[in-house]
Amino acid sequence: MAESVVLDPVDLHLLRLLQNDARATYRDLAAQVGVAPSTCLDRVTRLRRSGVILGHQLRLDPAKLGRGLQALLSVQVRPHRRELVGPFVERIRALPEARTVFHLTGPDDYLVHVAVADMADLQRLVLDEFTARREVARVETRLIFQEWDCGPLLPPGAEAATPSAKSDR
Predict the structure, then answer these.
(1) Is the predicted pLDDT of residue 151 greater than 90, yes or no?
(2) Strands 136-144 and 110-116
(3) Which residues, in sequence order, are CB contacts of 118 under 8 Å at separation 6+?
(4) Which residues contact 132 (CB under 8 A, 6 or more apart)?
(5) What digits encode the pLDDT tens for the residues 37-58?
(6) Whose C-alpha in 25, 46, 149, 159 is 20 to 30 A from the C-alpha of 139?
(7) How many whole angstroms separate alpha carbon 87 and alpha carbon 85?
(8) What is the distance between the alpha carbons of residues 85 and 32, in angstroms, rounded to a whole number?
């Protein structure tokens, strides 16, 4: 398990601001947090090097790219052995329809978030890419009607420590 990093209120405030707008300039961030731009740059660099900040992502709308149907696939793999986990996960991650893969505890081994064009495309994906694999024992499909993003991920107790914390959550 990864070690946690000690974050002070300035770090937490920077993280909240960056999560809401990863394109903010260091000058703007520094002004909002109340530190010099050079200090802001140093802190963000330290947060990147320590692995707290993992990168920046461009989010795309699947529907506008012709993949308006999203689903969660619960996948049971048998036998569930280490030598099958790596190749299975890499194959699923290589699928253009796959958005996220989770390795789980419980009756299902994986939960795969997919985005496809339509029901026929979903059926093709399940039959050709999942159930056709020898190690896949079962796939259960749940359609996603709607999704919502949740708030920024900050360490427990960080809400009260950040100047921009909202009390209406």
Answers:
(1) no
(2) unpaired
(3) 68, 69
(4) none
(5) 999 999 999 999 999 999 888 8
(6) 149
(7) 6
(8) 45
Q: Is the peptide bond before 79 cis (omega within 30 degrees of 0)?
A: yes
Q: Is the pTM above the cut of 0.85? A: no
Phi-psi region of 152 (alpha: psi -120 to 50; beta: other; left: phi over 0): beta
How far, in Å, are 8, 12, 19 from residue 160 at the CA level?
Answer: 12, 10, 17
Both ends of the chain: CA-CA distance in Å?
29
DSSP bridge partners of 102: 111
81 touches 73 (CB < 8 A): no
Tokens standing for residue 27: 């000058």
How many CA atoms are closer than 13 Å to the CA of 158, on its beta-carbon side?
A: 19
